[in-house]
Design a protein that fits this description.
The complex is a heterodimer. By secondary structure, chain A is an alpha+beta fold. Helices cover 23% and strands 31% of the residues of chain A. Chain A is built from 9 helices and 27 strands. The N and C termini of chain A lie far apart (107 Å). In chain B, a hairpin with a 2-residue loop joins strand 8 and strand 9.
C-alpha cells in the first residue's frame, strides 16, 4: 500500500529533475551572457575543400567563439531542427552550385529558418544554382539571370597577372556605416570575382554593402557582347545585406572567392592607381560583415520601459488629460561580449492615438537610460507610447505601450469659476429677494 | 372586467360603505392579478430559451450594471471606457441614460442587503417584467384619474399584455424602454393628478417622476412637448385654472433643473429646441395667469381697455422673443434639432441625410400590419375611446386624446415609437370597453329590474339597494346639476367650496339623465353586446399570448429553427464570443460592423472599434470603408487601428437573413458618406444588389464578400447561398492579408486574423523553374507584394 503513495512524489522529483536539466541545457545553449544570438553555425559547402581554401574566414569565426559544423550540402542527414528546436543559430551557405540540399533541408526550410529569427551568409558564384538564386530572390536579391554572366569592370578592376581579365573587381565604394563595417575604415579595396545582383530600390530591407562602380556591367566574359547587358552601372550590387523585419540578417555575396584565403591574403592594386596595398580589404570586410550578420554588433535591446506621473514612481493604469508625465526606456547595444549603453541623440517617443499628439526626442544619460517628460494632451482616448527606432545597420526597435487617458472626473473641475461670480450673486440675490417678497406678501396685511 | 368603481364616489349610506370596502378589496386584488399577469406573460423567453440578456443594447446595459455593482456609483459616473471605440474611448458616465442601470443596480443592492444573493444578470433579466407590472399599475392610476376605477382596471389589464410593449420588455430585454414606459405613464398620471387636485405636492412628485424619466430614456422629450401642448390646449379652450398653473409651472422649472443634472442631457435641457416648447408655453401661461388676475381686479369695462393694452404689449414681447429664438435656432447648423428629432418631423430626413440613422430597422416607418401586430384590436377600440373621452370632455380626458393623437403621429414616423402609442391605445381602449360594459350591464340591470320587479325602484328612486345603477344615476344626476350650476356661473373667481364641488363633479364620469334613459338597451342586444365584447377581448388575449410566446421572445443571440427533423438551436454567437475571450489576448482589438460591438465587449471582453452607440460617424465610416475595400486597403485601414481580428456574421449556410452581406449596402453608404471614393453604384449591377455571378467586380473583391464567402464553396461544392437564394459569384479564392482563425458550427460567425507584415520582401523575379537553362528576360508575371 505504501508504494503507490510514493509514486506521485517520485514522479514529481523525477519531473522536476528533468525540468532542471532542461533549464540547464537551455541556459547552456545561450551563447554568452544574454547574447542576442547563439554560437552554433552550420556551414554548408559543395566540396569539403572549401573548408581549407576558406580557412582564414572560418578561423576568424572560430576565434570569436563560433562553433562551426561543416557539412556537405547534399549530406542526406542534413536537418536544421530536431523536435521543434533549431539545432543551429546561423547558416553559412558556401555551396553555390548545389542543385538541392540533402536531408530535410530545402529552400523553404532555409527561409523558415530565417523567419524564425536566424542569420545567414550566402555566397554564390558564376555556377550559382537555381536553388541558391531562389533563396536570394526570397531575400529580396535578384542575381543576374544570365547564367554565364559575370561582373566585368574595365576601369575598377584589380591588376593581375592575366592581362585583359577584368572580372576581378577591386571595389572600394563601400557603404558608409560603422555598424556594418566596423569603426575602422577599410583602406584597401575589396577583391571580388563573381556574379552581380540587383535589389529593388523600394525594398527598404535590403542594403547594398558593396555596390558596383558605374562602369561595371554583367556579361559573359568569354563571348562577345551580342546585346547590351541587362545589368549595368551602380545599380548592380556585389554584396548586399538584408535585415528582415524580425531582425534576422542575411548577407548575400555574388562571389564565394571573396571569402577565400587567396583573396584574404593577396595584395591588391587597383587599375589606374599607383598605390599597391599589401593586403586586400577582404579580410577586414568579411570579418566585420560577419560580425554584423551574426549580431555581434548593431543589435539593440530596449528594456525597462517606464512611465509615471511627475513626482510619482508607480506606473499608473491610466492618465488624466493635462497630466505631466515622465517616460523612460533603457537601450543597450550588444558589443560582442556584453551589453553596453547605447548612446544617441535621435531616439524619439511618440504619444500616439491614430497620429502622434506628442513627439519628443529622448535625452540620454549615457548610461543607457533615455528619458523625457511631457504634458498629456488635452484629448482623451487610448494612447500609446511608441518608440520606432530604425537606423541603418541597427536592429529595429519598435516599442509600443498602450495607456488610456481619461477626461476629468466630475469633481475635478473647479467648483467656483471666478468669471461666474456675477451669476452666483444674481441667483443668490434673487433667492433672497423672493424669500423676502414671500414673507412680506404672506404676513403683510 | 370588474366594475366596482362606478359607485365609489356616490356612496352615502352604510350598505354603500360595505360595497365600497368590498370594491376596494376586489380592486386591489384585481390589480395584484394584473401585476402577476404582466410579469408572467413576459417569462416565455426564459421558459422557452433561458435566463439570458437579449439582443444588442441590453448587453451594454448589462455591462454597465455590472460595472456599477462592482465599483459603485461615483466610479460609474466617472467611467471612461477604454475598451470600446478604440482608440477614442467613450465617457460612459456622461453619455449614458443612467436610469435603467441605477434602477437595476439599486434592486440588486437591495436584494443583496436582504441576503438574497441574486446575480446581477438575473436582476437585469427580470427588471423589465417587474417594471411592466409597475407600468400596468401606473396605467390604472392614470386612467382612473380620467375615467374612474373601472376604466382604470380595464386599461391596466390591456396594457399588461399589449404586444407592442411586450416586444420591448420580455424577460431579458434589459433596455431603457423597460423602465421608461413606466416612468412615462407615471409622469402623466402625476400630471393629471395635479391637474385634478391642484396639489403642489403632486406637482413636486411630478417633477421628480419627470427626472426619473429623463434619467431613463431619450424619449423624455415626448413628455416635455406633450404636456405644454396640453396646457396650450386648455388655455385655448378656456380651461385655464390655477390647477393648470400648478400642474405646469413647477414641472418646467423643477423638471428643467433636474434634467440638467443628468450628465447626458446637461445644458441640452435649455439649449436644444426640443425643450423650447415648454418655455414658450410657460411664458404664455404666465401671461394668461396675469390676464385672469387683472380680470378679477378690474371692472369689465376697464378690463377691456387693459386687455387691448396687455395684448398689444404681450404680442410685441412675444414676437421679440420668438424672433430671438428663431435667430438663435437658425444660427446653428442643424437648426438646433438633432438628427433623430428631425427625422420625427420629416420622416424622409434621416434616409436622405443620415444613413446611420436610416440603417437601423427600428427607425423605419412602420407598415400597416405592424399596427395590427402590435396593438391588435385596440386599433378598433381607440375611436370609441376618443368618443367617450368627449362625453364629457374634462382636462384629464382631453389629455388622453391629445396623448393618443401625438403618439399616433410619432408611431407613424418611427416603428420604435409604437411603444409610446401602446399605453395611449390601452388607456383609450380601456375607457371604451369600460364605458361599453357600463352601458350594457346597466341596461341588463334595468331590464332585469323591469322584468322581476314592479316596485317603484325601477322608476329611479334610490330606496332599493338592488338597483345600484339607478342610485348612481340619480347621484350623478345631482352632481351634474351642481356642476352645471358651477359652469353656468360666469367665469368669476370661484370660491373654495365651488371649486371642490367642481372637482368632484369632474373626477366622476358624469352622464346626462336624459342620455342615460336613452342608453337603456334591449335585453338581448345587451347580452349579445357583452358576449361580443368578451369574444373580442378573448381574441386580443389569444393574440397577445401568441405574440409573447412566439413573436417577441427570441433573444436573438440564440436562434432556433424548426424543421421536419426537429428543433435546431443555433448558438453560434456565444460560441464565437467565447472563442474570442479564450483564445485572444486581453488587449486585442476586434473589428466588426457596429451591431456586434456591444456584444463583443460584454461577452468576449475584447476591445472593439465601433459599437451600437453610434456617436462617431467617421469612425463607423472607417470600418464601413474597410469592409467595402479590397483586401490590401482594408488591411492597411485595420492595421492603422491596431485591429487584430475581424469578425463577420454570415447567414448563407443556414439561411439567417440579418447577416453582414444583407447589411453591407449600409456599410457602403455610411462609408461613402465620409470617404467619397466608396461609391454605392460600384456595388450594384443595374441598381440591384447581388452577390451571384452577375455581381460587380468591386463587390466580388471587397473584404466583406471575401470574408463571408471564403471557403464557402467547400460546404456544398456549389456555393449556394440560402439567404440570397442563388450561387455566389466568385467561389474559389485565397486570402492574402487575412487568415481564417475561427468559424462557428453553423458558419454564422467567422473570425479572421490580420496576417502580420511579411518578414522579408521578395525580389521581383518569379521563382525560377528548375531546368530552364535559358536566360529569360525579366519574368512576366510580376508577383511582387511589397506591402511594407
Amino acid at each position: 500500500m505504501a508504494a503507490p503513495r510514493h509514486i506521485p512524489i517520485l514522479l514529481l522529483v523525477i519531473s522536476s529533475a528533468i525540468l532542471l536539466l532542461l533549464l540547464g541545457v537551455a541556459e547552456a545553449d545561450e551563447g554568452g551572457e544574454g547574447a542576442p544570438r547563439g554560437r552554433r553555425l552550420l556551414v554548408l559547402v559543395d566540396d569539403l575543400a572549401v573548408r581549407s581554401s576558406h580557412s582564414a574566414f572560418f578561423g576568424s569565426l572560430q576565434a570569436r567563439g563560433f562553433d562551426l559544423d561543416f557539412r556537405l550540402a547534399d549530406d542526406p542527414k542534413l536537418s536544421l531542427h530536431r523536435y521543434g528546436q533549431y539545432l543551429y543559430d546561423g547558416l553559412v551557405l558556401f555551396a553555390p552550385s548545389t542543385p538541392r540540399f540533402g536531408g530535410s533541408l530545402d529552400q523553404n526550410a532555409v527561409l523558415e529558418f530565417i523567419d524564425a529569427g536566424h542569420d545567414m551568409i550566402l555566397a554564390a558564384d558564376s555556377s550559382a544554382s537555381d536553388l541558391i538564386r531562389g533563396i536570394a530572390t526570397e531575400c529580396g536579391v535578384d542575381f543576374d539571370e544570365d547564367l554565364e554572366a559575370m561582373i566585368i569592370d574595365h576601369i575598377n578592376y584589380a591588376v593581375t597577372d592575366a592581362d585583359g581579365d577584368h572580372t576581378l573587381i577591386a571595389g572600394d565604394d563601400l557603404i558608409q556605416s560603422d555598424v556594418i563595417l566596423g569603426s575602422k575604415k577599410i583602406e584597401a579595396p575589396v577583391l571580388f570575382r563573381g556574379i552581380g545582383h540587383v535589389v529593388n530600390p523600394s525594398n527598404s530591407l535590403v542594403l547594398k554593402v558593396l555596390p558596383a562602380s558605374p562602369s561595371a556591367y554583367s556579361a559573359n566574359p568569354t563571348t562577345k557582347l551580342a546585346s547590351p547587358p541587362s545589368l549595368t552601372g551602380s545599380s548592380i550590387s556585389l554584396v548586399s545585406a538584408m535585415q528582415a523585419r524580425n531582425n534576422a540578417r542575411v548577407l548575400v555575396s555574388g562571389s564565394l572567392d571573396l571569402f577565400s584565403n587567396r583573396f584574404l591574403k593577396s595584395g591588391v592594386q587597383k587599375a589606374g592607381s599607383k598605390m599597391r596595398h599589401e593586403k586586400a580589404g577582404n579580410e577586414q570586410f568579411v570579418t566585420e560583415t560577419s560580425k554584423w550578420v551574426f549580431h555581434e554588433r548593431g543589435h539593440l535591446k530596449a528594456v525597462n520601459v517606464k512611465h509615471n506621473k511627475v513626482g510619482e514612481t508607480n506606473e499608473p493604469g491610466m492618465y488624466r488629460i493635462n497630466d505631466d508625465l515622465e517616460y523612460s526606456v533603457e537601450i543597450y547595444e550588444w558589443s560582442g561580449t556584453s551589453w553596453k549603453p547605447y548612446v544617441a541623440d535621435d531616439v524619439q517617443v511618440q504619444f500616439y492615438m491614430m497620429s502622434p499628439y506628442v513627439l519628443k526626442t529622448l535625452s540620454t544619460d549615457k548610461k543607457g537610460v533615455f528619458s523625457t517628460s511631457f504634458k498629456v494632451p488635452d484629448v482623451y482616448g487610448v494612447f500609446q507610447f511608441k518608440v520606432e527606432y530604425q537606423r541603418l545597420g541597427y536592429t529595429g526597435l519598435s516599442l509600443s505601450k498602450q495607456i488610456p487617458v481619461r477626461p476629468y472626473r466630475h469633481n475635478e473641475y473647479e467648483r467656483f469659476i471666478t468669471s461666474a461670480y456675477p451669476y452666483y450673486a444674481a441667483s443668490f440675490s434673487t433667492m433672497g429677494a423672493f424669500f423676502i417678497f414671500s414673507f412680506v406678501y404672506l404676513y403683510h396685511k | 372586467m370588474a366594475e366596482p368603481g362606478s359607485s365609489t364616489a356616490a356612496a352615502g349610506d352604510g350598505g354603500g360603505r360595505l360595497r365600497n370596502a368590498f370594491g376596494g378589496v376586489l380592486c386591489a386584488f384585481t390589480l395584484l392579478l394584473i401585476g402577476v399577469l404582466a410579469f408572467s406573460i413576459r417569462l416565455f423567453s426564459v421558459i422557452k430559451y433561458e435566463s439570458v440578456i437579449h439582443e444588442f443594447d441590453p448587453y451594454f446595459n448589462f455591462r454597465v450594471t455590472q460595472f456599477l455593482s462592482k465599483n459603485g456609483i461615483y466610479e460609474f459616473w466617472n467611467w471612461f471606457d477604454d475598451r470600446t471605440w478604440y482608440p477614442l474611448g467613450r465617457v460612459i458616465g456622461g453619455t449614458v441614460y443612467p436610469g435603467l442601470t441605477l434602477t437595476a443596480g439599486t434592486l440588486w443592492w437591495l436584494l443583496n442587503s436582504l441576503n438574497i444573493p441574486l446575480s446581477v444578470e438575473t436582476v437585469c433579466v427580470f427588471t423589465a417584467p417587474i417594471f411592466s407590472a409597475n407600468a400596468s399599475w401606473a396605467t390604472y392610476l392614470l386612467t382612473k384619474e380620467a375615467k374612474g376605477t373601472g376604466a382604470g382596471l380595464m386599461a391596466a389589464t390591456i396594457l399588461a399584455m399589449v404586444p407592442s410593449y411586450i416586444s420591448r420588455s420580455v424577460a431579458g430585454s434589459y433596455d431603457n424602454e423597460a423602465v421608461a414606459i413606466f416612468a412615462l405613464i407615471f409622469t402623466f398620471y402625476l400630471y393629471v393628478k395635479t391637474l385634478n387636485t391642484g396639489s403642489l405636492f403632486y406637482a413636486t412628485l411630478n417633477a421628480l417622476s419627470y427626472f426619473y424619466m429623463v434619467c431613463s430614456w431619450g424619449g423624455y422629450t415626448f413628455i416635455i412637448n406633450l404636456i405644454p401642448m396640453h396646457v396650450l390646449l386648455c388655455i385655448v379652450t378656456g380651461r385655464y385654472s390655477s390647477r393648470l398653473y400648478i400642474a405646469f409651472a413647477p414641472l418646467v422649472i423643477l423638471g428643467t433643473l433636474l434634467a440638467a443634472l443628468v450628465p447626458v442631457v446637461g445644458f441640452n435641457a435649455v439649449m436644444t429646441s426640443e425643450h423650447f416648447a415648454s418655455f414658450l408655453v410657460f411664458i404664455i401661461l404666465h401671461v394668461v395667469a396675469l390676464v385672469y388676475y387683472i380680470k378679477g381686479l378690474l371692472t369689465p369695462r376697464l378690463f377691456k381697455v387693459a386687455m387691448t393694452l396687455v395684448i398689444s404689449v404681450g404680442l410685441a414681447v412675444c414676437f421679440a422673443v420668438v424672433a430671438i429664438l428663431i435667430a438663435l435656432v437658425a444660427s446653428s447648423p442643424t437648426k438646433g434639432w438633432s438628427g433623430r428629432s428631425l427625422s420625427l418631423l420629416d420622416p424622409t430626413y434621416a434616409s436622405k441625410y443620415i444613413p446611420i440613422i436610416a440603417s437601423v430597422s427600428e427607425h423605419q416607418p412602420p407598415t400597416w400590419p405592424s399596427y395590427f401586430m402590435d396593438i391588435n384590436v385596440l386599433a378598433f377600440l381607440i375611436p370609441a375611446g376618443i368618443i367617450s373621452c368627449f362625453l364629457p370632455l374634462s382636462d384629464a380626458s382631453s389629455f388622453m386624446v391629445l396623448y393618443l393623437v401625438t403618439a399616433a403621429y410619432f408611431s407613424g414616423v418611427m416603428v420604435r415609437l409604437m411603444l409610446v402609442l401602446a399605453p395611449a391605445a390601452c388607456i383609450l381602449s380601456g375607457i371604451a370597453l369600460s364605458e361599453a360594459f357600463n352601458v350594457l350591464t346597466r341596461s341588463i340591470k334595468c331590464q332585469l329590474a323591469k322584468l322581476f320587479d314592479d316596485s317603484p325602484a325601477a322608476s329611479g328612486d334610490s330606496s332599493a339597494e338592488s338597483s345600484s345603477a339607478s342610485t348612481a344615476s340619480t347621484n350623478s344626476a345631482k352632481n351634474e346639476n351642481r356642476s352645471e350650476k358651477t359652469k353656468t356661473i360666469p367665469k368669476e373667481k370661484p370660491s373654495k367650496n365651488r371649486k371642490k364641488e367642481r372637482e368632484v363633479a369632474e373626477s366622476v364620469p358624469v352622464k346626462h339623465k336624459k342620455e342615460k334613459k336613452l342608453l337603456v338597451l334591449p335585453m338581448e342586444a345587451s347580452a349579445m353586446g357583452i358576449l361580443l365584447l368578451i369574444v373580442l377581448g378573448g381574441f386580443y388575449v389569444v393574440h397577445c399570448v401568441w405574440a409573447a410566446a412566439e413573436a417577441y421572445s427570441a433573444p436573438s443571440i440564440v436562434l432556433t429553427s424548426r424543421s421536419h427533423d426537429g428543433l435546431h438551436v443555433f448558438d453560434d454567437f456565444r460560441e464565437a464570443y467565447a472563442w474570442l475571450s479564450h483564445n485572444t489576448d486581453v488587449d486585442d482589438k476586434v473589428a466588426s460592423w457596429w451591431d456586434y460591438g456591444y456584444q463583443t465587449t460584454a461577452m468576449a471582453n475584447r476591445t472593439v472599434i465601433v459599437d451600437n452607440n453610434t456617436w462617431n460617424n467617421t469612425h463607423i465610416a472607417t470600418v464601413g470603408t474597410a469592409m467595402s475595400s479590397p483586401e490590401k486597403v482594408a488591411w492597411e485601414i485595420f492595421n492603422s487601428l491596431d485591429v487584430k481580428y475581424v469578425l463577420v456574421v454570415f447567414g448563407g449556410l443556414v439561411g439567417y437573413p440579418s447577416d453582414d452581406i444583407n447589411k453591407f449596402l449600409w456599410m457602403v453608404r455610411i462609408g461613402g458618406g465620409v470617404f467619397p471614393h466608396i461609391k454605392e453604384p460600384d456595388y450594384l449591377r443595374d441598381g440591384n444588389y447581388r452577390v451571384d455571378a452577375q455581381a460587380t467586380p468591386t463587390m466580388l473583391n471587397c473584404l466583406m464578400y471575401k470574408l463571408c464567402y471564403y471557403r464557402f464553396v467547400e460546404t456544398d461544392g456549389k456555393g449556394f447561398d440560402r439567404v440570397r437564394g442563388y450561387e455566389i459569384g466568385k467561389k474559389h479564392f485565397k486570402l492574402t492579408h487575412f487568415e481564417e482563425v475561427f468559424t462557428t458550427h453553423h458558419w454564422m460567425v467567422r473570425i479572421y486574423k490580420l496576417k502580420p507584415q511579411k518578414n522579408r520582401v521578395r525580389g521581383k523575379l518569379k521563382k525560377l523553374k528548375s531546368g530552364s537553362k535559358t536566360s529569360s528576360t525579366i519574368a512576366a508575371g510580376r508577383n511582387k507584394n511589397p506591402w511594407q
